[in-house]
Specification:
The chain has 194 residues and is mostly beta strands. It is 11% helix and 49% strand. An 8-stranded antiparallel β-barrel has the order 1-4-5-6-7-8-10-11.
């Protein structure tokens, strides 16, 4: 009789245990950072960085306690035009030889709606660090890939002023405009693996 009563109590106790913080690493083969910036004030140039690495400590029961660190290999920049990519990797923009990576380290996480977070952190580009806020959708529920590995994903977006990071190159147009806008939109699609 006692064993029959003990089993439901154990089930109830185990079901009420809190989820535990788990360490996740970024899967660079299924993650990318995208950027877009106005060109000549009439069109938008888009590109991506594919060399993303990093980790996240995350407990779905306590998402505001999450911590993220990530780096992006600036040499993976691809805008689809080789000459433009070479200029952007050079001293006019990312100066990849001197500053091969960008870095993001979270400092605070807040809920901003169902399944949404605001992740504040320090972004370092060209040895200049500035605070940014990422609007995050996710992380998703855990899924298993074909090899049985547990994965989660998220999307994030922010905007920065490139001049605040020391990327000041520009050309003044005859009409008074500029070749490249100051504001850059950034979006991220990140897949994590346990």
């Amino acid at each position: 009789m006692l064993s029959r009563l003990a089993f439901p109590v154990l089930v109830l106790f185990s079901a009420s245990l809190p989820a535990q913080e788990t360490s996740w690493r970024i899967d660079p083969n299924h993650s990318a950072a995208y950027f877009s910036v106005r060109h000549l004030m009439i069109s938008t140039v888009r590109g991506e960085f594919s060399g993303i690495n990093g980790s996240m400590r995350y407990d779905p029961e306590h998402p505001t306690e999450a911590r993220v660190e990530a780096t992006i290999d600036c040499s993976t920049l691809n805008s689809g035009v080789a000459a433009r990519d070479a200029q952007m990797k050079g001293p006019d923009f990312f100066d990849v030889k001197r500053y091969p990576t960008m870095k993001f380290t979270s400092t605070q996480v807040k809920k901003s709606g169902p399944g949404k977070l605001k992740v504040s952190g320090d972004l370092t580009i060209n040895a200049t660090t500035r605070p940014v806020v990422l609007d995050v959708e996710g992380p998703s529920a855990v899924v298993k890939d074909a090899r049985g590995r547990e994965k989660i994903g998220l999307s994030a977006a922010t905007r920065i002023n490139r001049k605040e990071f020391g990327i000041i190159w520009n050309e003044i147009l005859e009409t008074g405009g500029v070749a490249v806008a100051d504001e850059v939109s950034i979006s991220l699609d990140i897949e994590f693996i346990r």
